[in-house]
Amino acid sequence: MYETLKLDVDGAVALVTLNNPSQMNALSHQMLAELSKLLDELENDNSIGVTVFWGGERLFGAGANIKEVSQIEKSYDAFVWSRGIQKVFNRIENSSKATMAAIGGIALGGCLELALACDLRIASRSAKVGLPEINLGVLPGAGGTQRLPRLIGASKAKEMLLIGEPVPAEEAYRLGLVNRVVEDGSLLEESMKMAKQIAAKAPLARAMIKSAVNVGIGLDIEKGLEHEAKCFAILFNTDDLREGTKAFLEKRAADFRGR
Q1: Which of 3, 68, 93, 133 is catalytic?
Q2: Catalytic pick from 73, 93, 113, 250?
Q3: Which of 57, 84, 91, 248 is in Cβ range 3.0-4.6 Å of 104 for a Cys bridge?
Q4: Which InterPro entries does the UniProt record give (predicted)?
């Protein structure tokens, strides 16, 4: 069904592999179209709780397809291209599923921007991440200038953006760009372990937590607290809340159904 992506499902976890190694997993028009279609498929599948994106132990992705980008001649076409890829990545960020990027090898440019749209990022110890677009005379157009400062602060984000050199995984962890660093060779195992842990939690609470954080971060504190209270209240009308509290009192594992 997909030529540049590969989908594997393990229980409630969907593993999406960027699968165009001959092009170093560059984000081509075809890959983005297939990614949009795949996101539709996953969003409509209530059995999936977590989506993990990865490219392999030695490569996440080298960025945008430079050959395709070089063919853009007009500013308006560049704007349309940028907004198009932003909309795809926004769907990852705003998915009701938890999303993770498992970064092995290099994650540069648009591929790092894909990872930045995820809720969580895990990197192998030898991985490197960066936004080198300045070296091409351009800037990241798929969310990098907006999401990176929100993760690591404006000053450090500007340093990465203005120098354009990749940083090693340990530095990315220290900055808060990645959540965990794992040993080489164990990236997929550790990522799937974490994904399954998240997938076992209450689906509706997971979605409301994402909403509370993603929406609230763009509001002033009082409006953010109000949005949090609304998300909190919504969950009080769910079977999952009743099951969770009952299971806690009965000292057993909860059986969440997403209702």
Answers
A1: 133
A2: 113
A3: 57
A4: ClpP/crotonase-like_dom_sf, Enoyl-CoA_hydra/iso, Enoyl-CoA_hydra_C
- Give me the residue spans of the domains in the chain: 5-199, 203-249
Beta bridge partners of 121: 101
- Per the annotation, the verdict on 159 as an active-site residue is no
Instruction: Answer whether CATH 3.40.630.10 is correct for domain 5-199.
Output: no
Domains 5-199 and 203-249 in one fold: no
Measured distance CA(5)–CA(87) in Å, rounded: 18
Q: Determine the CATH number of domain 203-249.
A: 1.10.12
Q: Which amino acid is at 26?
A: A
